[in-house]
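Design a sequence for this backbone.
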């Protein structure tokens, strides 16, 4: 089953888009309808892109290939791709993160993982 959804990350003024199990044609259509751009889709199990809309707002797109199951491999994939987004947001807003200052980073990452998991399942 193909799933597409997006979540506003209001506190950091950006939006997360998630596509799961969509065809190549639906991928291209989604990208064009939302961003008026063309993106070359990869064959990786999961991919993350940073895209700017015509107003300069930052969007993060996660593309999850294949059928998602509630198993360890799927959770690994979601956590992995969400971590790319977490790093991108942290870098953009200059969020400090280190072993001594990690709570904001970890809360953001946990929130993103939760939203992706809830949307996919």
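Sequence:
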């Amino acid at each position: 089953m193909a799933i597409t959804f997006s979540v506003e990350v209001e506190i950091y003024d950006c939006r997360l888009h998630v596509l799961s199990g969509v065809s190549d044609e639906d991928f291209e259509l989604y990208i064009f309808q939302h961003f008026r751009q063309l993106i070359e889709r990869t064959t990786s199990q999961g991919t993350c892109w940073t895209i700017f809309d015509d107003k300069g707002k930052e969007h993060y797109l996660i593309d999850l290939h294949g059928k998602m199951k509630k198993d360890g491999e799927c959770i690994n994939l979601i956590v992995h791709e969400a971590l790319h987004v977490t790093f991108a947001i942290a870098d953009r807003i200059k969020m400090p993160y280190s072993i001594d200052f990690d709570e904001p980073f970890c809360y953001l990452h946990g929130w993103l993982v939760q939203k992706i998991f809830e949307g996919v399942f």
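The radius of gyration is 14 Å.
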